[in-house]
Amino acid sequence: MTNINVGRPENHRRDLVIVVVLLILSWSLAGLDSSQALGLTRLLRGSVLKPFLAADATYERRAALAARAARLETERDQLYIRLQGATGLERENRELRAQLSLPERQPGSFVVAELVPGRPAIGDSHSFLLRSLALAEVQVPTGISVPEGLVGVLRSISGGTGLGEFWTHPDFRASVRSATGGATGIVRAYVADDGETLMLVEGVPYQARMAEGAILETAGLGGVFPGGIRVGTVLRESASRSGWSHSYLVAPAVQPGAVRAVTAWNRASMEAGSLSPDSSTVPSVSAGQEEVSVDGP
Amino acid sequence: MTGPRRGWSADAVVVVTLVILHFTLYRFFGRWPAMPNLLIGGLLLAALRMRAGYAAFVGFGLGVLEAAMGMEGLGTLSIVLTLVGYLGARSRDLLFADARHYVFIYLFVGTWIAEVALILAMPGVPNLLGALVLAPVSSLGTAVMCGAGESVAATLRRP
After folding, report:
1. Residue B2 has what DSSP assignment?
2. B11 inside 8 A of chain A by CB
């Protein structure tokens, strides 16, 4: 048996110094805020990792093309049916608001973007990249959603790329209310005993109750998420109760893994008119600021 | 080509191939929970032939690249892989020979420890199932694949 030959004799002290320096450097990388981390990630993804990402994208496109075409066809048909119904509803809503002397509803504008989920080799993905040229107009942090419900939050933007976190991220919090408006709370990710990732609504006032099956939506407080975006459905009251408040387990409306096309809320257009994010009784803004309205009338 | 240089080239080719394979098959490997981790395997093989400081530097670089690819855990991955590189290089003193089965055990144990460290250090609730069941399976696959790579390098090293 031969000893492993490593060339020149080792200098343990120098190696130790190198490791300590590298660990300090790593520690400072861990402390980078999301915009600085995005800069470094973009630099590496645009240079060293570019060939691998290009191969990855090609593979994904080919694998998903057939399934995507069929799904798009189904979605188009469903949208057509919904549009048929929504047109009449919108007109009816406008007429009723006019009769009540209410101004036009202005839910803010949304930017459509492509979502690229993070894929850590170990652990679950909690982060994503967003790609859209229109992202430059969006103010962060802001809510990311799909028609089915809330996806996460966009933390930083650089050019046409943004870095965000899914609702499964340990730092994610959003204020929610029951669709009837009877109870409010703060929602966060919660990993159940069987490993399934659910949501947990905390801080629901003691006197308020959330019924099993109740639909939760964003409350719009704080201006990060627009009001009225579906978050999930109440499963049951959680065993953990803190003081004079209830907690409830919630089945999420959206599982982040399957999402590719999303909308980012552009509250800049609302702030231009000093508007409350979820207010339905807001003064109308200029027509140029309204691009895509996803909320129903 | 001289003997030692030829040995180095063979090792470098195997390690670089493993790293390239890891990033090329990233999505494929990410589809199943217990796939071989060629990045850690490649780093451990590199650490066998490098000085500890250089191995730590390689680990740091690979950690940053891995974090950029997965968009998660920039600091965590660089810390863990720096330590894997350094400790891998230092632990070769324990392997008194480069006999095939010692390298296999080194790869298996090293990958397992690295994966458990990553599972515990990454954000979110630690996945105990992953640490106790999936990580050993992944480590076994890594040891087999990277051990095969080491055998190829050994064949090329032979004068």
Report:
1. -
2. no
Note the pTM of the prediction, 2 decimals: 0.61
Q: What angle do CA A246, A249, A252 make, to 5 degrees?
A: 135
| CATH 1.10.1760 given to domain B3-153 | yes
Q: Which of A48, A55, A195 shows the shortest C-beta gap to B24? A: A55
- Residues of chain A with pLDDT > 70, as a percent, come to 83
B65 or A66, which is more confident?
B65
Across the interface, whether the CB atoms of B74 and A168 are under 8 A apart is answered no
Instruction: Tell me yes or no: is domain A106-274 CATH 2.40.10.350.
Output: yes
Q: How large is the greatest C-alpha to C-alpha distance in chain B, in angstroms?
A: 52
Least confident of A119-123, A132-136, A173-177, A189-193: A119-123
Q: Which two tokens stand for residue B108?
A: 């298996």
Q: Please tell me the distance from the alpha carbon of residue A125 to that of residue B73, in angstroms, as a whole number.
A: 10
Q: B3: buried, middle or exposed (CB in 10 Å: 19+, 13-18, 0-12)?
A: exposed
Residue to substitute from B51, B58, B116, B129, interface A, most A β-carbons within 10 A: B51
Rounded CA separation A288/A68 (Å): 33
Mean pLDDT score of chain A: 80
pLDDT digits (tens, 9 = 90+) for B86-128: 999 988 777 655 567 788 889 999 999 998 888 888 776 666 7
Which pLDDT does position A283 carry in this prediction?
36
In this model, does residue A116 exceed pLDDT 90? no
Closest CA to A223 of A291, A276, A176: A276
Better-predicted residue by pLDDT, B80 or A124? B80
Interface with B, mutate which of A45, A122, A131 (most B CBs under 10 A): A122
pLDDT on residue A108: 67
- Is residue A214 within 8 A of residue A234, CB to CB? The reply is yes
Query: Would the CB atoms of A1 and B65 count as touching at under 8 Å?
Result: no
- ipTM surpasses 0.90: no
Which residues does chain B have within 8 Å of residue A25's beta carbon, measured at their own beta carbons?
60, 78
Q: Which of B8, B17, B25, B74 to probe the A interface (max A CBs under 10 A)? A: B74
Domain ranges of chain B: 3-153
Q: Please work out, in degrees rounded to the nearest 5, the angle formed at the alpha carbon of residue A185 by the alpha carbons of A179 and A190.
A: 105
Per-residue model confidence (pLDDT) at position B96: 54
Residue B75 touches partner A, C-beta closer than 8 Å: yes
- Tell me the domain boundaries of chain A: 33-104, 106-274
The residue among B28, B13, B19 whose CA lies nearest residue A48 is B19
| Nearest residue in chain A measured CA to CA from B19 | A52
Query: Do residues A206 and A244 touch, judged by C-beta distance below 8 A?
Result: yes
